[in-house]
Write a structure and sequence with these properties.
single chain; alpha+beta; 5-stranded mixed sheet; globular
């Protein structure tokens, strides 16, 4: 059975990360100051920053069997997918962060 958690702040946010795993489903709100346009002109937000602000780490994500992570924009009560991170890319991120820590 999936464990569903909602982590949010009182005021409504325009962006959020949806983190879906084999046994967990998280929604993390994103502070507006963490959203920017990258060099390609696309909307972006560093996952590590949002995780840290919600007291999580990339290493924890690897233990939850993450299937995918989506950055979405809330627009007229709809969720518009801005970016999606597949599990294979997530594993690469976790491995590279572990190499930096060592």
């Amino acid at each position: 059975m999936k464990e569903i958690k909602q982590i949010s702040q009182i005021q409504e946010k325009e962006y959020k990360f949806i983190i879906e795993g084999k046994t967990v489903f998280f929604t993390l709100t994103v502070d507006s100051e963490d959203v920017f346009h990258n060099a390609d002109g696309n909307i972006d937000c560093p996952l590590e920053t949002v995780l840290r602000k919600n007291n999580f780490t990339l290493n924890e994500l690897s233990t939850w069997g993450i299937v995918n992570i989506r950055l979405v924009r809330l627009l007229d009560e709809r969720e518009l997918i801005i970016n999606q991170i597949e599990s294979t890319l997530l594993l690469e991120l976790v491995n590279s962060s572990m190499n930096v820590e060592n």
